Amino acid sequence: MRRRITGTTDEIIFLGTGGARYIIAKQLRATGGMLFRIGGKNILIDPGPESLYRLLTYVPKFNPQTIDAIILTHKHIDHSADINVYLDVITEGGFKKRGILLAPDDAFGEDGVVYKYLVQFLSKIMIIKPQVEFKLDGLVFHFPLKHDHRVETYGFKMVYEDYALSYICDTKFFPALISAYKANILILNLLRLEPSEIDHLSIPDCEEIIVKIKPRVAIITHFGMTTLRAGPWNLARQLAQKTGVTVLAAEDGKHYEIKKLLSYS
Length: 265
What we know:
- The chain is of the alpha/beta class.
- It has one domain (about 10-260): Metallo-beta-lactamase, Chain A (4-Layer Sandwich).
- It is about 25% helix and about 25% strand.
- Strands 6-5-4-3-2-1-14 form a seven-stranded mixed sheet.
- Helix 7 (about 205-215) crosses helix 9 (about 230-245).
- The chain is globular, with a radius of gyration of 17 Å.
- The termini are far apart.
């Protein structure tokens, strides 16, 4: 029987808050994704380069074999580089059939990023498509729509108890994001300062999303070079002033307690 971690505080741990090629190469910010420890479950999101190392560093007593599910929003390397490392760890090299992987269809196969031989070791595979729902005990993950990105990409809305948390990952802005991701806690990938042809959110995009969704708190992450140079905390403060919503700039290795995030108003 798997050892369960009990008595832990529901929290989000940022294993990396950087994104894009230059940040990966220089590791100016880590690129390890996020770990949700909620409702007694461990959900890993987008394990990019050095994710496992960051996890063992930031949560030293955590056993990666207790990860219940991995959500891969898309196959770009800054989101997926460590995916096969985790699949091997969770299944103990294939000796234990366990773990759940959720990923878009193009993450598999000849041009995918998930090794075929590891798939057979998992207890479950779910292909993410628009309107797919994933339930894990009391947690419900809803993938409302396909993002406007260079590869097949999906964010999600998680509902647990009496609150909702949304993660808007890499995408160009389009109006349907607003209704799809209404939540109490909103996590936004903010790569750029200004809108461009590159398919990522910018400061004006995030401002519009926050104003219209009106979460209790918004957290910006996945910073590119321009946003790092401008200072993520400066950008968070500017967004808070413009939107009237508490905006936090995620930090590598920081633990954010859900209870505290919901206390913002």
